[in-house]
Design goal:
Length: about 200
């Protein structure tokens, strides 16, 4: 009887310890460590001013090889895809650092910076942007709306679409900048002077 109780107690302890091992998450960056940070759909030079920036919001360096920016058009189709290139050594993004993809040949950016990479984006006024990791998992997304029409790019939408600055406000060179991450585009994104 004592042998059976001891065996039963050992089995229960092993099961309890096993459950702890299955429940404990691996030590790694959170699933949304890389997030969209700023989008300029059109500036002083029209489509030549477009850029998308994403940022490492975690506390550690993240390998971003294979991450993708998908531009979603007004009919909710992927119109452009940019993929972070594979390099040796790996393309990584340190904590707090941004990766900026700008239209090739662009010359009208506010701060004269150099982008991390270039790609023709063609982001429509009522389109959107989806950021995916190398496995294709959505990390973040934003959809824009015109001044009067709150439609466009439903697959890129989180809550209500963010206001775009690309049509009437074009001369002000306003970009959409992320100010919060509550999975609701309109309050999470503000129009402000482009930082790049």
């Amino acid at each position: 009887m004592i042998k059976r109780l001891t065996a039963l107690a050992s089995s229960a302890l092993a099961c309890a310890l096993g459950a702890v091992f299955f429940i404990a998450p691996p030590a790694s960056a959170s699933a949304e460590a890389i997030q969209l940070d700023e989008v300029l759909t059109n500036g002083d030079n029209g489509a030549l001013d477009e850029f998308v920036a994403f940022k490492n919001t975690s506390g550690s360096t993240v390998n971003i090889e294979g991450y993708q920016i998908e531009v979603i058009d007004e009919s909710d189709s992927v119109s452009t895809t940019y993929t972070v290139p594979d390099t040796t050594p790996n393309t990584t993004l340190a904590a707090g650092v941004r990766w900026i993809v700008a239209t090739p040949g662009a010359s009208g950016y506010n701060n004269g910076g150099t982008p991390s990479d270039t790609h023709t984006l063609n982001i429509p006024q009522r389109g959107g942007v989806i950021l995916r990791d190398a496995s294709g998992v959505v990390q973040d997304k934003v959809a824009f709306r015109g001044l009067l029409l709150p439609t466009g790019a439903p697959s890129a939408r989180e809550g209500t679409n963010a206001q775009t600055g690309s049509l009437v406000l074009n001369p002000l060179d306003l970009s959409n900048q992320k100010v919060a991450d509550n999975d609701h585009n309109e309050p999470d994104w503000d129009l402000a002077a482009a930082t790049f």
